Each structure stands twice: as C-alpha cells, then as structure tokens.
Amino acid sequence: MTLGKDIRMTDFIIPAEAPDLVELKTGRLDQFARLTVLSVMKKLKFGRIRMIEDLDQHSFGGDRASELQASIRIQHPRFYSRILFSGSIGAAEA
After folding, report:
1. Of 36, 34, 70, 33, which Cα lies nearest the Cα of 51?
2. Predicted confidence (pLDDT) per residue in 32-48, tens digit
3. How far is it, in rounded angstroms, from Cα 29 to Cα 19?
4. Residue 59 to residue 1: CA distance in whole angstroms
5. What is the pTM (predicted TM-score) of this model?
6. Which helix H or strand E contains 33, and what residues bound it?
7. Residue from 78, 61, 79 nearest 70 by CA
C-alpha cells in the first residue's frame, strides 16, 4: 500500500533502520522500568519465568514442576521500558 510519493505503509510499521543495541543508552526511565517489572514479576503464581541478564538470573513463579515455563535472555535494559509502557506488544517487539 502506498501512502504518498515515497512513503510506504511498512515505513510506519517497521523502521527502515533500527539502532544497534550498543547505540541505545540506558537512562533513569529504563532503571525505573526494570525495578517495576521485576517487582511485578514477583507476584507470578502460575508457571515459571526465568529472566537472564548478562550474569544475573531472576526466577519467578510458584511451581517449579509446572509445564508452563519460559526463559528470556535480556540483551538490553530498554526491554523493561518496552514492557512497562507498551505491554505485551512492547514485550513481543523487544
């Protein structure tokens, strides 16, 4: 779908060039989002989620024997801001 002369619909959905992770700076908002997301994750009762950041690992959930388990490797602290402010879509995009 073309929206104008040189603008395509995909330009709004997928950025032409995403910044490299090393170019993204970590700010106070990212730190706040991390603390908030981790504190909310502590309330998880069903299933298990393991979040891996560099050398740190955080495990959340009640039942270690649950069949519902996931591991998430976090490449950049901006991940937490995306979850906190954009919900499940932000998590999927991050």
Report:
1. 70
2. 999 999 999 999 888 89
3. 18
4. 44
5. 0.67
6. helix 28-41
7. 61
